[in-house]
Write a structure and sequence with these properties.
Number of strands: 3
Largest sheet: 3 strands, mixed
Number of helices: 5
Structural class: mainly alpha
Helix content: over 70%
CATH topology of the largest domain: Helix Hairpins
Strand content: under 5%
Distance between the termini: 17 Å
Bound molecules: zinc ion
Length: about 240
């Protein structure tokens, strides 16, 4: 029984290491994705600011064109006013000029307000860019470490590949099916050591009579509390 169990423990050890590696390979990519999504979010907030700035620039262009047009009107009226002969004509032109001047002031005010907004957006952009650049170093470093961990775990899995199948072939089939049953129901260890009369699976004491059977190791014994297969280590380590 002792030897049979030793093979099973060897299989379990390999499967645990493989399970840990697989678990890591499931979890670590989530961390990588999290970092990538932070970077994407930062980039898109910068893009959003760029779009806002572009939209303001677009609003500037027609206003600037109108301002030019308005100036042409003002210049023309100015030239005409010098050749005016009647008071009535003078008043009409004066009114035209006043309107053009009012419109000019209005456009200039709008342009100033737009330029003010562009300036503020540029300040925001610079601030976000700076903090992004310094965070980026940390984020890239974190990501690189996670990717290195993934590569390591893949190498671990590669190293164990085939070993579990090989060990399975060496274990008594009925013992193996019992092991698999317990492993699935416990989602983990199926064979555990009993140390000083305590089951290492559930940390409960096993009855003294059972402990004597364990030491004799002539039959398969399961923990009465957690149903895991239990054994005692009687050999010195490495023997
Ligand atoms: Zn137990």
């Amino acid at each position: 029984m002792k030897e049979l169990l030793a093979d099973l423990v060897a299989l379990q050890n390999v499967e645990i290491e493989m399970f840990k590696a697989e678990e890591g390979l499931r979890e670590i990519p989530k961390g990588v994705e999290e970092i990538e999504s932070i970077i994407r979010a930062r980039k898109s907030s910068l893009d959003a600011i760029d779009e806002e700035i572009a939209a303001y620039e677009e609003r500037k262009a027609p206003l600037e064109a109108e301002l030019n047009e308005n100036q042409t009107i003002l210049d023309a009226t100015d030239a005409r006013i010098k050749r005016i002969k009647t008071n009535k004509e003078y008043l009409a032109l004066q009114r035209e000029m006043d309107l053009a001047k009012k419109r000019k002031a209005d456009i200039e005010e709008q342009l100033l307000s737009i330029m003010d907004k562009i300036e503020k957006k540029n300040v925001d952009k610079e601030r976000i860019q700076k903090s992004f650049e310094s965070d980026r170093v940390i984020l890239d470093d974190k990501k690189e470490k996670l990717l290195a961990q993934i590569r390591e775990l893949e190498a671990v899995l590669d190293g164990y590949k085939g070993q579990d199948e090989l060990l399975r072939k060496g274990v008594d089939p009925s013992l193996l099916s019992k092991y698999d049953r317990i492993k699935h129901s416990k989602k983990g260890l199926a064979v555990v050591e009993c140390i000083d009369g305590v089951c290492m699976g559930c940390h409960m004491h096993v009855p003294p009579q059972l402990f004597n059977d364990l030491v004799r190791a002539d039959k398969l014994i399961t923990c009465p509390t957690c149903q895991r297969i239990i054994y005692v280590q009687t050999q010195a380590p490495g023997e």
